[in-house]
From TrEMBL:
Residues 3-58 form the HTH deoR-type domain. The lineage of its organism: Bacteria, Bacillati, Bacillota, Clostridia, Lachnospirales. Keywords: DNA-binding, Transcription, Transcription regulation. This is DeoR/GlpR transcriptional regulator.
Length: 251
């Protein structure tokens, strides 16, 4: 096969899937792994794909290395976050044992929980815990280090404190959602806790507005198939092929 033909097939595969591995390209194109790696390097230099460890990703994705503080986050996409939070709250039932992750969208979720619901809650969000107890809910707080930027309890102690629990549902925040990299967050300590909560939940929901799609941050805490996504955006088919997605309407 001619080089230009391989280039065309590779770029088409990346555009379709947003990210592909060398192994996938070897199987699809029939060239050797060494040849595919050279092609990916060349295409990266041409700006056609983004070379990543083990494969390539579409250049449209955005890699983030930092995040805003809580006050800044509160000012962004408020209507979208509230619509997502309202739907998520409607899924909570009597006798649920719920984990609520720290974050602005998950905090809005608490505002919409019916006070008549006899659910029990665990959270690592300082403000979240105060809101839950103010509404009269039985609430447990994860123990550990407080991360000032997100007002979240994080770290190994927090992970150990929730390992004994088995949640019916968890509601998790994310900084990025990507078909290849999965759900990502900026901080390693926060990622550890998110991962543990997802692994100890019967059903997990990631609450994320449309701006989180196609973005990748430092640490992956779960693949897309591990959680349902609640979002306000019109989601591309490549995401729907990997997990369940609820698209909510924003007034």
């Amino acid at each position: 096969m001619l080089t230009q033909e391989r280039y065309r097939l590779i770029t088409e595969a990346v555009e379709k899937n947003q990210a592909v591995t060398v192994e996938q390209l070897v199987n699809e194109i029939g060239a050797s792994a060494a040849t595919i790696r050279r092609d990916l390097t060349a295409l990266d230099e041409l700006g056609k794909v983004k070379r990543i460890r083990g494969g390539a990703a579409a250049v449209e994705q955005e890699f983030l290395t930092s995040e805003d503080d809580v006050d800044t986050k509160y000012e962004k996409n408020v209507a979208e976050k509230k619509a997502i939070a309202e739907y998520a709250a409607s899924t909570i039932q009597n006798d649920d044992f719920i984990y609520i992750d720290a974050g602005t969208t998950t905090e809005f979720l608490i505002d919409y929980i019916d006070i008549s619901v006899s659910a029990v809650f665990v959270t690592n969000g300082i403000v979240h815990a105060k809101k839950l107890i103010s509404k009269g809910f039985k609430t447990y707080m994860a123990g550990g280090l407080i991360r000032a930027k997100t007002e979240a309890v994080v770290g190994s102690e927090a992970v150990e404190s929730i390992k004994k629990f088995n949640f019916t549902k968890s509601f998790i925040g994310a900084n990025g959602i990507h078909p290849f990299h999965g759900f990502t967050t900026v901080d390693t300590d926060e990622a550890m806790l998110k991962k543990e909560a997802v692994n100890h939940s019967y059903v997990s929901y990631v609450l994320a507005d449309h701006t989180k799609f196609g973005k990748v941050t430092a640490v992956t805490f779960a693949p897309l198939e591990k959680a349902c996504i609640v979002t306000d955006g019109i989601v591309k088919d490549k995401y729907k092929e990997l997990t369940l997605i609820k698209e909510v309407h924003v007034e």
